[in-house]
């Protein structure tokens, strides 16, 4: 059973320009995911899909193989699911390689560790078609998350008068970008990740930082420094 790791890193980033190659803890952000994948014996090859020449240079410098992503799959509105399909088609078609498991390691979650990734790989078994990572949510739509109605009044998103304490509501989780695991054929035959049977692996908050802006970057740096 072969496992290929993919890092999808486009050049454009409005929240934090150049974030995928910005140094964090002495390494370009992108390199954290590459090095982690390389350190796991169960991962056979590591690819970086990008539209950006500088990112491609950095990816190769750290030992990853590069997939040239078409510009139309690297815009702010482009679906990453389609970038996944393009990467699979490239590996199967242009390289002529077969692989059983697809692991996506977003560059923006540099604090993950081997246990997080191995836990996701192990969870793809039986009838499970995709694996995501989550962390316990600080807010609950049953208790302290609100939305506005047409009259401008706020109501609990999933209001239910039987819940009087937060401790009584069903557990909810935030989806993280620590890792995604699935099979290539699932991606090619489904429209989205949640079209299938999805298993969630819980990771601690301190390893689930998703860098989207300057504040996130500072949080990640502070956690690395502790």
UniProtKB/TrEMBL annotation:
This is Acylneuraminate cytidylyltransferase family protein. Coiled coil: none annotated. GO terms for molecular function: nucleotidyltransferase activity. Its EC number is 2.7.7.-. It comes from the Bacteria. Pfam families: CTP_transf_3 (PF02348). Keywords: Nucleotidyltransferase, Transferase. CDD domains: CMP-NeuAc_Synthase. It is an enzyme of class 2 (transferase). The keyword Methyltransferase does not apply. InterPro entries: CMP-NeuNAc_synthase (IPR050793), Cytidylyl_trans (IPR003329), Nucleotide-diphossugar_trans (IPR029044).
């Amino acid at each position: 059973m072969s496992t290929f790791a993919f890092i999808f890193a486009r050049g454009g980033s409005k929240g934090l320009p150049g974030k995928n190659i910005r140094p964090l803890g002495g390494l370009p952000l992108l390199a954290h995911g590459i090095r982690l994948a390389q350190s796991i014996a169960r991962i056979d090859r590591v690819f970086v899909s990008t539209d950006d020449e500088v990112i491609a240079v950095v990816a190769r410098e750290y030992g990853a193989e590069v997939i040239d992503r078409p510009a139309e799959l690297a815009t702010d509105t482009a679906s990453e699911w389609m970038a996944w399909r393009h990467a699979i088609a490239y590996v199967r078609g242009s390289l002529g390689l077969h692989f059983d498991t697809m692991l996506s390691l977003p560059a923006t979650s540099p604090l993950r560790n081997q246990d997080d990734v191995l836990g996701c790989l192990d969870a793809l078994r039986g009838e499970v078609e995709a694996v995501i990572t989550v962390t316990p949510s600080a807010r609950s739509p049953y208790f302290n998350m609100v939305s506005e109605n047409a009259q401008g009044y706020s109501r609990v998103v999933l209001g239910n008068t039987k819940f009087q304490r937060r401790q009584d509501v069903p557990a909810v989780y935030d989806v993280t970008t620590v890792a995604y695991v699935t099979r290539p054929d699932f991606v090619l035959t489904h429209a989205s990740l949640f079209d299938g049977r999805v298993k969630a692996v819980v990771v601690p908050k301190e390893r689930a930082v998703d860098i989207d802006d300057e504040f996130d970057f500072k949080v990640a740096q502070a956690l690395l420094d502790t």
